[in-house]
Amino acid sequence: MWRSRPTRYAKLHDAVVRKFAAMEGLNKAVKELSQGLLSEKIKLERLNISKLEEDAITTQLFAEKEAAKLSYQNAQEENSNVQFAQKESIQEKNMIERRVASMREENKRMVEPQRKQYEKEIAQLEAELKCVPCVCACATQLVGDATQTRCVDGHAVM
User: Fold this and answer.
1) Number of domains into which the chain is organized
2) pLDDT the model gives residue 149
């Protein structure tokens, strides 16, 4: 029996050593797997941070896009208003020009006879200014222009 005990202990010892070696192998595998898991968690966290940053950038870009769209719409509306005001101004200018032209025509029609009368009177007065009195005081008081030496009756002029 004494002999059987050491063999039993030896077998037990061998079994414990094998289990211990297997346990160390398992602990080593667990440690490696834990490190791999931690590494994957770190990668996942980095991806989450990257995703959050991208989401923030995307949100900002959408806000900028909406602001640009609104600005573009406002600019289009302002452009339309300016074009409408420009067309309105052109129409008003054309109406004023037509009114001015018709007023000029009307003024010309109203004033033309009087202007012709004034021109005729001015021409007569100029002709009288060019004439000189006759020396004889005959019925023909005025004679043509200053270059003439005799009146229509034949008298000398002054």
Assistant:
1) 1
2) 58
